[in-house]
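Reminder: ligand-aware prediction takes two inputs, not one.
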Amino acid sequence: MSTDTPDAPVPGAPSSETPSYGEPTSPRSPLPPTPDQAAPAPVSATGASATAPDGVRAQQGEWLTTAGGTPLAQTDHSLRAGRRGPVLLQDHHLREKTMHFDHERIPERVVHARGAAAHGTFRSYGAADGLTSAAFLAEGVETPVFVRFSTVLGSRGSADTVRDTRGFATKFYTSEGVFDLVGNNIPVFFIQDAIKFADVIHAGKPHPDREIPQAQSAHDTFWDFVSLHTEAQHHAIWNMSDRGIPRSYRTMEGFGVHTFRLVADDGSTRLVKFHWKPRAGVHSLVWEEAQLLAGLDPDFHRRDLADAIESGAFPSWQLGVQVMPDTPDQTFEGIDLLDPTKLVPEELAPVHLLGEMTLERNPTNYFAETEQVAFHVGHLVRGIDVTDDPLMAGRMFSYLDTQLTRLGGPNFEQIPINRPRCPVNDLLRDGHHQDAVHTGVAPYHPNSLDGGNPFPTPAERAFVETPAPVAAGEKVRGPHTSVDDHFSQTRMFWLSLTPVERRHVVDAYAFELGKCYEQVVKERQLACLARVDEELCRAVAVRLGLGRPDGEVAADVAPSPSLSQLGLRWPVAGRVVGVVVDVTIPLAPVLALRAALQAQGVRTLVIGPRGGVLVGTDGTELMTQRSLDTTRSVELDAVVVGAAPPPRPDLVPVEGAGLDPRLDLLLEEAWRHGKAIVGWGAGAAVLEPYDAQPGVLVTDSASDVAGPLLERLEQHRVWERLHPTG
Ligand code: HDD
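Here is what comes back for the chain with HDD:
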């Protein structure tokens, strides 16, 4: 692809006026640096930009230089003694280039290594008055944010769509310092005490001898641990549900998990649990789709997030809190608020909405931003404090500790993505990678030589730990929870699901336990399921070919309907629809269909029998984004068929016979995964075998497609097809 004439129009390619479809399908002009690409200036001790000249980072200027800024005329050949002679030791450029390359990798995160991130803005509704003094939650305040989503178990190069918990970590760059909300897409955790973190992670990570399986919980050590350490059962059933395989990072809820303490201006306190509610709804993949995607597009969630933002379908969430009184026993309706394996049903404490976050900008550089961002539960601001949840206490220690190894020293807060966007005036000095050029001579307190600066901030403007009473008594190593109950909320979750969601849970246990080798592990987990629900246990036991153990289920557990993902309609922005066309039909109606979908924020991928530009019977030119060689239905939310491309001869036994098997597979998988399928014209004939199936629609013309298609997309999937009885 030539870049000599970057502005030359490409037939059928979107013009600069047409919206981007999130895919670099046509040659682009070299982009000028955007303001966010400007070299970040070092921060002085006061937080003001210091003296470094612009352009200290590469690819900001025209001419190639060394890291020291010396202009270079050559970077393709080492310096040699004669054309075929030995390479000379004096070649500093060779040594510098190789040395730097050799050290490009840093240790990946020990958990949550695989992730994707985006920049955005949080806008406060001003609904936190009387709850917290945090400035960023005052009415109308806008705060820049950086959000990193992740899987937990896999390494940095693992697939996005594996069954796992997802991390949902948000950095708020507030005017009063950085606040990090380091949560997950599941509201409870495997363990009650941080001392068990290494155990649960060792159990979930690949087996130490062969280092398999990668990014999976479907193996003996994981189920060995959770069946022995039964407080993990609640989190485990969430992982086995559709929550473990989200459709997109954009369609996940987020939870702060722990109970936090909010402190108001008058000093009054409340206990709260943080929630992120996605505007696009909570949606998941089906398991086969997730498995196929792990091979066909291991970057599915990363791509989806970036494409949605690039196409203007900005993901957004509302932030809310469940508010509970700060009572001495720190329980609410019998639920121990210091036990992170328990949730508070929304039916008992509704979510009070505080503001809205929109992600509108992709990172410029993955390593500089997404990899080097360092979250920490101890990054708190005035008005938000921790509680005595021992899991949280362990996290307060762990996150600083891990950054030292991962980011190579104590100054990681100075990396541009981690820098506060407010004055920084600490007394921390020196260390590896010190970027700040500190002034002054007295980095200690109290001092007189720097005029006493910096002075302690007046209490009403400072972060002050809440004077909460602490439980007195003897030093003890033992459980901290008020009730030792691992099964009633596990059962509550199961009872709250619709039949199709329950079927998915059964499928997931059958798969995961079926992948275990040790009979004793399967039997022990079945014994746990017997304490969750008789029907669940029986269904899984049958699939494993084992008997159903006896077990007593918790009595009087009421479901919490808000835990189900189904039953509502949601905005469709960011959904992806594939439209199969070829050159035997007029293509102007396809352009109109694409515009109608685009108007709702839906991204359309034109799928041709081959790549490149198609010219329709009406002379309309259309650029394909996919061909039958490069797409499978798993990357789509719905399929539209407007043509029946003749089969590729080498793929069918008799030339011209039947449907192209790639199109056949596209339709068959879309059908099996519960996706809407719409056809018109020649495409309608292709859908005859699916005649009268729910969610398979045929229209007279392309102009009739958008209406019924969007209606189906609002419900995410054709549920009656995925589970005919309910
Ligand atoms: Fe953690 C990373 C979420 C318990 C120790 N954790 C990490 C990330 C998320 C969470 C989202 C990725 C942050 C990023 O994108 O950089 N972790 C949680 C939640 C927990 C939790 C919701 C329970 C409520 N974590 C937890 C415990 C410990 C850790 C109990 C250790 C005692 N977590 C870490 C860590 C990581 C981390 C090792 C790895 C990389 C990092 O911190 O920066 O320190």
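Residues 245 and 482 are 33 Å apart (CA to CA). Residues 1-22, 24-28, 36-56 have pLDDT under 50 and may be disordered. We will return to this case in the review session.
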